[in-house]
């Protein structure tokens, strides 16, 4: 893994805006790229598939032993989550965040419910590669995998229409949703887009503003927010993408459970739901949070970095801290995509701090 300086493409801003990527200012960077060996890519792919399999086992463990309280799941939601799992409701996508430590991906967390940085990791990054390194490869089958996953969803559900919703005041969410709609349409799905607040709940079913009943809905909106806002809406007669069982995977309180179930995995960092006297080097994370908020890094018992935010009410987990290698003063985190249950590609975000937050920058990559 190497970080290599490079001259940006001429008028690259216009090129990526033409692809629907308009929130790139101070985020998408072309003055450098990361280069990986095929062995490193194969290790990331293997880690992604194995971590997803471990998460599947961990969800089954939570359900079998009724551990919903450990994940701060609101009372009354357990049965609906069980039903979603037992029906095998289909999942579209998720993103693992890894730190590469001596060639081994170490799992930092799993963005299993509402992951973004998708458009740039998929077609925008690929176009950059095609323009500058046409003869090189890239770990990137994201777009093709999304299209295939939508085809699989239609083969299973056979819906006449699929609704897509998000909060449109968030530009990144809106453009991520637009990209997913385009992929769904390429797969042959009939789609409709509405805003989250336009979902109309009436007698256990959702309707769109035209009065059409919504039977399957992709929501770029976190399950924990939905559960706190309307349990009646969560349990309505509708198929959700992501499914309700993903509320377990997206929960950082799963990290201690993974650590307990797989103490010898090379990819899983030791993690607990409470601070023990012997812990001197750890990362304190809220059970629910976004964009690196309310994270504290502790080394040798001393706080070395801390981020602000409004999360943490439900509690924290304490994960073994690893020293992410610095490249030219930047700390990269690998976002490895799992689509339809399989590894599909990756994108890299980097920051000058050790916590990846909403000020991170996206850097493209190639395979040597």
Account of the protein in words:
It is built from 10 helices and 20 strands. The chain is α+β, with helices and mostly antiparallel strands. The protein has one domain. A hairpin with a 5-residue loop joins strand 8 (205-207) and strand 9 (213-214). The longest helix is centred in the N-terminal third of the chain and has 27 residues, at 38-64. The mean pLDDT is 95.
List the helices and strands and how they pair.
Blueprint: E1 2-5, H1 12-17, E2 32-36, H2 38-64, H3 78-86, E3 93-101, E4 104-111, H4 118-132, H5 142-157, E5 162-166, H6 171-186, E6 191-195, E7 200-202, E8 205-207, E9 213-214, E10 216-219, H7 223-229, H8 231-234, E11 239-241, H9 246-249, H10 254-261, E12 271-272, E13 282-286, E14 296-299, E15 302-306, E16 316-320, E17 331-339, E18 342-351, E19 361-363, E20 365-367
Parallel strand pairs: 2-20, 5-6, 5-10, 10-11
Antiparallel strand pairs: 1-2, 3-4, 3-17, 7-8, 8-9, 12-16, 13-14, 13-16, 14-15, 17-18, 18-19
GO molecular function: ATP binding; ligase activity; metal ion binding
Domain Glutathionylspermidine synthase pre-ATP-grasp-like: 13-367
Keywords: ATP-binding, Ligase, Magnesium, Metal-binding, Nucleotide-binding
Outline, from the CA principal axes?
globular
Could you give the distance between the termini?
10 Å
What is the string of helix and strand elements? EHEHHEEHHEHEEEEEHHEHHEEEEEEEEE
Strand arrangement, major sheet:
4-3-17-18-19
Mean pLDDT: 95
Main sheet specs: 5 strands, antiparallel
Low-confidence stretches: none
Which class best fits the helix and strand makeup? Answer: alpha+beta
Task: Classify the beta-strand content into a percent band.
Answer: 25-35%
The total strand number stands at 20
Helix content: 25-40%
Instruction: Note the total helix count.
Output: 10
Tally of individual domains: 1
Gyration radius, rounded:
20 Å
